Amino acid sequence: MKKYIPYLLLCFSITLNGCSLVYKGTGNVMIAYAEDQGVPYMLAADDVSLTCSMVESFSPFLLSFSQVTTPPDQLAILFYLMAGNCTEFKAQEEELRYLRAVYSKNATEAQDARIAQQRLLGLAAKRQYKGYQYLLKAFIEPSEVCPDLSSKNTELYWMLGLVNGLQSILNDVASGGSADVPMDIAVKVGRGSVCLDNEKWWGMPEAIQAAIWMTVPGKVPDNINPEQMLEQAMQTGLEQGIRIPQLLAAQVYLGQGNIEQVKNVIREYAKLKQTTTAETYKSLNQVSNIQIQAISDRLWTEATGKRTPFGRIGTFWDDPEKQVDTVDIDEFL
Questions:
Q1: Averaged over 157-168, what is the pLDDT?
Q2: pTM
């Protein structure tokens, strides 16, 4: 029997190596398909719920191939950003439940909703922070030195990774710090944003930098007005039909308690028209639509006990009657 042991070990080794080659080949094919076909399809999709289902279920499978082939770090940046957004949507519903409970003076319901909201925001922060960590693996840590951004795709992943970092901080703060996201990421993200062309990327680089200066304590350059920079970034987004700068501005002003500015952002947002650029990145716009709708719903619910009336995004309960226009949100969804 002993004389067969070397042959058995050899066969076993060949079998394992054969499986490894199959797994590696399969991984390369899956990752290449995801990069070439899956991501463009997902970015242009108009059903965020289906995108959430795909990202949350497919991400572990796709990323598991990092054990046998080149890790798909750039894909992970996008997938964890979307997964974090999907968790944010659930947290926003819990926030509305909390506000309705406060409005109706139901303390127990309000406490339960707030706990559920914070748990979900903590999960969103963890996912987005993980997406930021994949940015460090795929490129370099944002600093005074820019990475090699040799294509439009690499620029896109770099920008989304920066958004991951910023959103992870905002959600971690809102969750009570449950995700332990390092606050110094904000400065690094601000530095990283200058590596991108502001006009090419819808005003997002300047929107990111302005948002950091307005929300994170620190020294603002003497010749810079962050609010003015944010307004210019929003205008660039408006011109190109991309809504992410408006969302970022609404989040910043909401965090500052500047409700009138939040209302103004939402009013301008509701006037946006579809463009060719917007078609290419429809999924990102759809996420912004849902987030802006959630902010509007928050304001309405806090004031009236119910969310934004159907077809009235961009209007508010205290508007003069002659200024209340009907806007169909279905045009944006």
A1: 96
A2: 0.86
